[in-house]
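PROTOCOL LOG
Step 1. Enter all chains and additional molecules of the complex.
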Amino acid sequence: MSEFGNDTVGRPDDSAPGDQGANVASGVRNYLIGLVLATGLTAASFWVASGTHLIYAPGVAMALAALAIGQMGVHLAFFLHITTGPDNTNNVLALAFGVLIVGIVIAGSLWIMYHLNTNMMVPSSLMDMHLQK
Amino acid sequence: MITFVIGGMTGVLLAVPPVDFVLHNSLFLVAHFHNVAIGGVLFGAFAGYTYWFPKAFGFRLDERLGKAAFGFWVIGFYVAFMPLYVLGLEGMTRRMQHYDVSAWHPWLIVAACGAGLIFIGIGCQLAQLVVSINNRDLLQDRTGDPWDGRTLEWSTASPPPAFNFAVMPDVTGEEAYWGAKQTAIQQRRLSALPDYKPIEMPRNSPTGFVVAFFAVVTGFALIWHIWWMVAAGLLGAFGTFVAFAWRDHSESKLPAEALAKADHRRRHARVAIVEGREAGIAAVTHTRPPMPDPNKLGLLAAADGGYKGPATKRIVTGYGFWIFLLSDFILFSGFYAAYAVLSHATAGGPMPHRLFDLKTVAIETAFLLLSSFTCGMATLASNARNMLWTQVGYLVTGALGLGFLIIELSEFGRMLTLGAGPGRSAFLSSFFALVGLHGLHVTIGLLWLGTMMAQFWAKGFRTDVLRRGMCFALFWHALDIIWVGIFTNVYLLGTSP
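Step 2. Run joint prediction.
Step 3. Record the structure below.
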């Protein structure tokens, strides 16, 4: 054991992602809360998608997106223990950068492809360069 | 710089759709991207090659030939590529086998001369390398700081030792090395001899190379449908992974005496700089602006205890793995985006709501969610060093993951029998790519989980095994987050009215 040192005791101002306090009971409670919240949000998503009349139909997609983002947040907070505490600054900053890139990739692709679809549809005779002299 | 700006401006022109439509595939475009690639990337790479060559190999490159190469390259570049802008505007397309427009001819001759100049530039670079290797004793970098550098890599010897820094440099302000060097030159002596402590070095391991070899075998076999070779490649890669996970000694300690000895040689060379015996560097010294107050640079901060030492390995490992997971999210975001763009491109084939069965998806989701919870329980148990519950937790996690995978594969099978395979439409290609990639991650997670259980069983709760357990838990929880995106984006949005 000595060869590897004891590194399970973190420093007070820094912690690895996924680390939590040593207390088992509070740890179990934490995961249980996460499980209940995540199950609730999942059930809500399926309920919304199954065609309820409580939600204005064109808003269903938006509701689903909101529920999904909420559930991802629950997973991050209760399962991966990414918190806003002072010991987690590095992890949160890395996450923020990741979210930024993911947002650019997804929103950017949709935007550009939509734009191309609407603005650059040219007659097929023009697109076929072989036919031009 | 100017070269790169020209490339950028022509890029802006090409970004205007009507212009782009006219100039598409013309030599104007060719000139533009060479402008960016050569001016921005290649010249930058050449600069870095010249600058860090002495750090990597211990001797500088020949300066005269280097300047000649620079001249030929820059002039040759302009002579070769500027005519292409004109040619592009005159309507010449790229990759022509022959041409019969006489107006193009003079420009193309000029461009060919430019190519010749660039060729001479390349020749100068090759000659520079040969000449420099031959004259390496003359060009030797004795001090490790041949350019009077400002950043910390120049404080090491050239080439740097495997441990890089004998004593961890204390960086509390900007330009820590510059500040320390100025102090030393002003006081005409080096800083006090540091207190050398043994350094833990990771042992060299061929694992990466061996796994890459098996990956190449697998890729080759997959392309040519040689299924036995696919199996052999995968088995080899997994076997290497297990063998690597099984090692007992991943690190070796470098004793303090060896460090002190190696560092003494470096400091000896440094004394020459400080005392003005090493020409070239000391000569520049007196023309420098006065040295800033060392207190402002934070060089003395170590004394007042503001520095708590490097983070523990658990924190560093966890952080590194977290960065990897975030890059994995970015990989998935590309597949999400492809699916979102293509989900309506069904090519007359089946639509999403005719293929997906929400009940099955709900069961899959429940399996994965529960497995995330049990994985958390296993992590808690392993941190509390309870073998029984650790193994039970991992076992249940693995069973749930396996269940998820079996349901997913049977769904894939059902779709294939309906004629809705990945080849049917762009929608189905992107569907199988996205969901299949997640399934592949789950498969790898299951293999990892099995190895994890065996490691805990055989090695006990050793700190390095616990670190791996932490990484596995992060990986498994991350898979669940990705699934949340998939069941919303693919299944729920696909089937909602």
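Step 4. Note key features.
Chain A is about 60% helix and 0% strand.
The first helix of chain A runs from residue 24 to 49.
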